[in-house]
Design brief:
25% of the residues lie in helices and 26% in strands. By secondary structure, it is of the alpha/beta class. It has one domain: Stationary-phase Survival Protein Sure Homolog, Chain: A, CATH 3.40.1210.10. Strand 3 and strand 4 form a beta hairpin.
């Protein structure tokens, strides 16, 4: 199996390195990741200036390619340039911090998996809630076990999956639940502060749970309760019932 691995925390992040090592159990891994952290960039791509790339080595051997761009850029570069054969699987992660609910629309980690899905390749985003000292090696082992089981289901080409692990404070996860995204926003919060010169500045997104409703049966609630969550997703944002409904309207120009 040919596997393309990326992330949004950067090519030197410990979560990426742990997942790189464990994915060797499934096949040949090509790593193409951002040169620096790209958290929160979503599906942004670089097109107003050239993409610079450098080779990264580990233990005097090729480790991967560091791209001065977004996770979506990295997947494009991997599929079109650095993978000798078309990948069978794209994996993005392990992200430091969960990507649940509406965060998937902002996440660079999830964007890397979405870009793989654009290419018609089965793609999995892997993230981990962080409230204590993370054990990335343990999470990577479990993540690869889950990914192998996803592949055993023979999902259609281009299928997209979002996999989240709870915080270490729960010890071993309580289990895995397949569930939906939690998309209800409870409130939005922006923290205003004043710098030493008396000028205001702002922090957004300090607490990922403060603006999200803990609805039962959603990834937000289940990760908070100590479960691993697996969410099948797709990037088609079309409201298909709406298309059917409003096609019948006699629209005037």
């Amino acid at each position: 199996m040919k596997i393309l691995l990326t992330n949004d925390d950067g090519i030197n992040s410990p979560g990426l390195q742990a997942l790189y090592d464990q994915l060797q159990r499934l096949g040949q891994v090509q790593l193409v990741a951002p040169a620096v952290e790209q958290s929160g960039v979503g599906l942004s791509i670089t097109y107003l200036h050239p993409l610079q790339v450098r080779e990264e080595r580990r233990h005097d051997e090729h480790y991967g390619w560091a791209v001065h761009g977004s996770p979506a850029d990295c997947v494009k570069m991997g599929v079109l340039e650095y993978c000798e054969e078309r990948p069978d699987l794209v994996v993005s992660g392990i992200n430091s911090g969960s990507n649940v609910g509406i965060n998937v629309l902002y996440s660079g980690t999830v964007a890397g998996a979405i870009e793989g899905s654009f290419f018609g390749i089965t793609s999995v985003a892997v993230s981990k809630a962080i409230d204590s000292q993370p054990d990335y090696d343990k999470t990577a082992r479990s993540a690869v076990d889950v990914i192998a089981q996803v592949l055993d289901q023979e999902p259609p080409q281009g299928s997209l999956w979002n996999l989240n692990f709870p915080d270490e404070s729960f010890g071993h996860p309580k289990g895995l639940k397949v569930c939906k995204l939690g998309v209800r926003r409870f409130k939005e919060e922006l923290e205003k502060r004043i710098d030493p010169r008396g000028r205001p500045y702002y922090w957004s997104g300090i607490d990922y749970l403060v603006n999200k409703e803990m609805e039962p049966g959603t990834d937000i609630r289940e990760v908070a309760d100590g479960f691993v969550t697996l969410t099948p997703m797709h990037f088609d944002l079309t409201n298909h019932p709406g298309v059917e409904k409003y096609t019948e309207v006699d629209w005037a120009l």
